[in-house]
Amino acid sequence: MDEIVKILVIDDNPQLILLIRSLLSGENCLIYEAGNGVLGLEMVHKHMPDLVLLDVMMPGMDGFEVCGKIKSDPVAREVIVVMVSAIATGSEEQSGILENCADGYIVLPITNREFTARIRAFLRMIRTEKNLRYNREIFKDIFETVHDGIFYITLTGKVLTVNASLEKILGMAREEMVSSNLLSLSRRLLKNTEFQAVVQVYRNFLRGEGVNPFHVVYRDKILNIKPVYNQSNQRFTIVVQDITALIAAQKSLAELNNTLENRVAERTVELQAINKELEAFSYSVSHDLRTPLRAIDGFTRIFQETHTASIDQEGMKLIGLIHENTISMGQLIDDILAFSRLTRREVNFRQINMAELVHEVFLELASPEMQKIIRFTVKAIPPAVGDLPMVRQLWRNLIGNAIKFSSPVPKPEIEISSYPDDSKTVYSIRDNGVGFNMHYAHKLFDIFQRLHPSSKFEGTGLGLAIVQRIVLRHHGYIRAEGKEGEGAIFYFTLAANNQTGENL
Q: Is it the case that residue 86 has pLDDT exceeding 90?
């Protein structure tokens, strides 16, 4: 911080002023000039210089009188005044004024080099003082505006100063605390148990132990006390924080957590009861609903076999529709059961070779004829972490859909690939089949929602809902893109390795 220093030269010799300007031209100074004492005093009040170079012998008002007026002025008394004269001090009175007023004296004649050196010494002093003043102002701003209260005390406990926040926290005026002893002040303000805590901390310090933060109760407040010892100047800075609101918030949070734990426990019991009901419902679906379906299918077959001769072509067609619908209903029951089990089934994470798995699933689902027709491509895809049966079901549904919806195309294609996304791998499956309208994409993963008529594409409307449930159980996401007549592509992620490593 090398600020410009303002210098006022008060001298009735223009040549000397010119010489001073020349000698100080490289010192980053702003130089004012006055030809007599009266004008010099006006310039002092107008410009408030940092340094006054003052001639002693001037007409009207000599330098001693000017110096005395500057130093007696409450506003200007901090200005550095250096007397510059060709004569030494004269009378005892003038010597006294010099002792009590001027900050320095330069006797002329003197070499230019020595004169410049002496002025530079004053400039260094002025700049040092400016820096100190600047730092004091910064310290004062921080000290007075910081939210925490601060005691600044000596090693013996004498309070040197406090800040405005401490006045507010303790409800005491600064004058009541400054110059008092901290231990005496603590005895007066705190209850005995709180005071003994302060004494114990001080005793620990005297034994050479560390000074650690501690709490005290003051009136209706809880205060956190943090002593910091500065060994270089043997002073303590004691930071006082009002943590009443924080403690109350922590207490409320603890009570809320207890309440939430109780609610969670209650909700868990409720969910367990609901799961038991769902299990009972699943059993009913699996057995009670299948029984009439089997009966319908069986009686239809018996009727067909025993009355073949009397059933016309239309009747045979109706019997065929009954048989197909019982099969569809059975598949729907299977899908509903599979969907409901996904929420209850525990996920057992393990490493899965995804490339190997998709090849296996494709060979299971595609007939030998379809395998020859479909161009099935699996690009280099990394392994995944997941539940193998669930991930297998996920691929069965996605690859099954791709086979189903690309079968009407003359040259069906299915491509499986992946790309990295932060800590996860995004897997994708693309086909060039019938596609879908993106306007209805939000319905894709809802149960019983179909974007294509069942008369053209068989299915129960649960396949993609099951896929989404599996992905969610693996902490992933799934989305789809498509265009009618141009195919579809599905993207999904499974849990990153670092999320499930403990379950491997």
A: no
